[in-house]
Design goal:
Blueprint: H1 3-30, H2 40-68, H3 77-90, H4 102-107, H5 110-114, H6 119-129, H7 133-142, E1 157-159, E2 165-167, E3 174-178, H8 183-198, E4 207-211, H9 216-230, E5 238-240, H10 252-259, E6 264-265, E7 267-271, E8 277-282, H11 289-301, E9 343-344
Parallel strand pairs: 3-4, 4-5, 6-9
Antiparallel strand pairs: 1-2, 3-7, 7-8
């Protein structure tokens, strides 16, 4: 109900109460001897009507005044973020459009990519990064990229060691786990293995382990040493240098470093049902079942994905601008055609 309607009703109550008070006063004046000559019942009735009319005048007048003079509360940053989240949820069914150009994901400064997000998105990135600058940079370089983009800069099919062809744009959720043979990789893979065994239906976890640097012998040794935790090599979907044939001179190593900007191992990338990269991480920022649950919810199951918080593309005037010091080291900014060697995340992704 609008403030005007409420104010109008309160005004009617106040005026009606005022009229009742006048009626009581006139009635008492019309009685010979006034109030003193009334019997007990009449006196009580007069008192009750007088009190009721005064209360009606006071409350009706007050609420009429407050409603007619109502001003909305000033917006704070917290209320603006809450309203933005509500609006995003209402628009959750709208088709995502990639606003940041694919070339900018490769070459733009991390600060410029960060500024492409809403305030809510920036806060979410900080939270999801868990204090890891590497994860923050990885998120900025990958989240929001569309595999179905007409630019065609993503490899959409991977061949596993078992000979299966994995299609990343098949309308299913996919988790790509870029691994080495470190304890960090084994820790996160153990959590993923347990989750995959216990999940089914719409929330069935599909993850693929990609070894961009290890040869077959080291991969076999890794699985034999950790099979009780991560399962056997036959149980897993595994892509390696040996299984993935070079396509147009693009090896699995190049796919990891050039297409996904993997610089540290382990790293992981979530691709949702729409074929859009929805989340990324480095090291062991998901080192418990609860953290894994929260991460998967943000990546696949929440209605408002992180990429929906991208409000604009990179400012053309700022492309190639010098400094990313507010976000991360400038050494983490890489050219599209420059290969880098993924290194073991010796600090767990921090």
């Amino acid at each position: 109900m609008s403030k005007i309607i409420i104010g109008s009703l309160c005004t009617v109550v106040a005026l009606g109460s005022f009229g009742l008070l006048i009626f009581v006063i006139k009635s008492l004046r019309a009685v010979d001897g006034g109030f003193g000559n009334l019997n007990l019942a009449s006196k009580l009735l007069a008192i009750v009507l007088t009190i009721a009319s005064l209360i009606g005048i006071a409350t009706g007048g007050w609420f009429a005044f407050t409603n007619f003079t109502y001003k909305p509360a000033e917006k704070t940053e917290a209320t603006e973020q809450l309203q933005a989240q509500i609006d995003k949820s209402k628009d959750g069914d709208k088709k995502y459009v990639q606003l940041i150009e694919t070339s900018d994901y490769h070459t733009a400064g991390l600060g410029d990519l960060f500024n492409s997000y809403s305030k809510l998105g920036q806060t979410t990135i900080e939270s999801l990064s868990g204090g890891s600058e590497k994860t923050k940079a990885f998120i900025l370089r990958t989240v929001g990229r569309n595999l179905k983009s007409q630019e065609g800069l993503f490899t959409t099919q991977l061949k596993t060691l078992s000979g299966e062809v994995l299609k990343l744009d098949d309308g299913k959720d996919h988790l790509l786990f870029f691994a080495d043979d470190s304890e960090y990789s084994a820790t996160v893979l153990g959590l993923l293995h347990d989750r995959a065994k216990s999940s089914d239906g719409e929330k069935k976890l599909n993850y693929t382990i990609i070894f961009p640097t290890l040869d077959g012998t080291k991969i076999d040794q890794f699985f034999k040493a950790n099979s009780s935790k991560i399962g056997t090599i036959e149980e897993n979907s595994v892509v390696s240098i040996d299984s993935q044939p070079n396509q147009a001179n693009l090896s699995i190593y190049s796919i990891a470093t050039q297409e996904y900007h993997v610089t540290d191992l382990p790293s992981y990338v979530a691709i949702d049902k729409t074929g859009v990269v929805s989340l990324a991480g480095v090291g062991t920022i998901i080192d418990s079942e609860q953290k894994l649950t929260d991460w998967l919810n943000s990546a696949f199951y929440t209605k408002n994905k992180l990429y929906n918080e991208i409000e604009r593309g990179v400012d053309k005037d700022k492309k190639g601008a010098a400094s990313d010091s507010a976000t991360t080291s400038s050494t983490e900014t890489k050219s599209e055609n420059k290969e880098t060697t993924p290194t073991t995340s010796g600090t767990g992704g921090q």
